Amino acid sequence: MILALTNKHIYWFFIYLWVSQKKPLSMKTFFIASAFALVGSCATKKYTAKVQDLKDSIQIVDSALVVKYANTITTKELSQHLYTISLNDFKGRATGELGQKMAAQFIIDYYQEQEISSPFGDKNYYQSIPKSFLPKDTKASENVLAYIKGSEKPEEVLIISAHYDHLGINKDGQINNGADDNGSGTSALLEIAQAFKIAGKEGHSPKRSILFLHLTAEEIGKQGSEYYTLHPVFPLENTIANLNIDMIGRYDKDHLNNKDYIYLIGSDRLSNELHYLSEKVNSTFYNITLDYRYNVENESNHYYERSDHYNFAVHDVPIIFYFNGEHEDYHKPTDTFDKIDFELLEKRTKLIFATAWELANLDHRIKVDNGIIY
User: Which of 298, 322, 349, 356 could crosslink 188 through cysteines, CB 3.0-4.6 Å?
Assistant: First the structure.
């Protein structure tokens, strides 16, 4: 596209010279200008054909199974998880504080109840992060990890992540319960893990391994994901992608008349195949409006750099960031359970599950191309 635009501009520059100088355009000049335009046009068609070829090569697998196990994700169970995660008892889940550790134990208890194992092969689901790694005056904290081993390519790992920490108690003594941020993502991750576990029990384990990664310290600088990428449980070169979930339970002021949307950020930055796979999954199953306005380079809010997926992206792991945008209760004590749209949360969670299913069960690993189609 860049080549086509450039040559188009050159073509019209020749025309401009002709008009401004009020002289007949020589046959030689005319042919040069036409040649540039033709080359640009051919290049554009060639690029367009490659994009279409990539789109056509993406095949959805296991459609009936995707629908069956996605339907185990329900508003009832999402609301039960989120109600607990956003309780006052957890005191806003500030990194290193008692409430965050209580939330971590709640997550572990759920995985043990569902018989979803730890990647460490025992009852330890923690990746401990020392105080020295965290900002000053922050106590040691923990990522929480659960794992389903792949049936055919266990060495390849898909990571689905959500941070479970929040802002704690503000200076006025009010608790920041963080229902949307990120109780919604935490609840979604628990439901997605359960759906894969149910599928496995019925003989449909994912071909690739899946790591369910609950991250701490996102709110104070993404240190949980930074620590994981510096000390990965599975080699980053074997990590096929990261699907990161951060705030998917509400809608922003720009979608008051169409709340059936989700912002997708980063899906095409490192892998066009991931991007087009994501779109095909959506068009096949859910037809949610995929809003890419925050995916543009140098976007003023810098959302691409602001959540945990970024620490995977800088290590060349393809990512998708799922996000509903900021709302009037963002980072306030008023981000509470009663304001969550659970039907919306369910549909978005199912979309992420379906995308994860396809990634985990493709016959090949998605290609990393740094967003360039050759």
Answer: 349
User: Which residues on neighbouring strands pair with residue 188, listed in sequence order?
Assistant: none
The two three-digit tokens of residue 268, written as one number: 């095409």
DSSP string, 69-81: HHTT--HHHHHHH
| 78-132 tens-digit pLDDT | 999 999 999 999 999 999 999 999 999 999 999 999 999 999 988 999 999 999 9
The two structure tokens encoding residue 277: 């796979």
Query: CA 189, CA 353: separation in Å to the nearest integer?
Result: 9
Could you give all domains of the chain from N- to C-terminal order, each with its CATH number?
Answer: 2-57 (no CATH), 63-361 (3.40.630.10)
In 286-341, where does DSSP find H-type helix?
A: 309-313
What is the C-alpha to C-alpha distance for residues 228 and 205, in angstroms, rounded to an integer?
25
**Residue 201 buriedness (CB in 10 A; 0-12 / 13-18 / 19+):** exposed
Return the residue matching tokens 């635009």.
Answer: 5
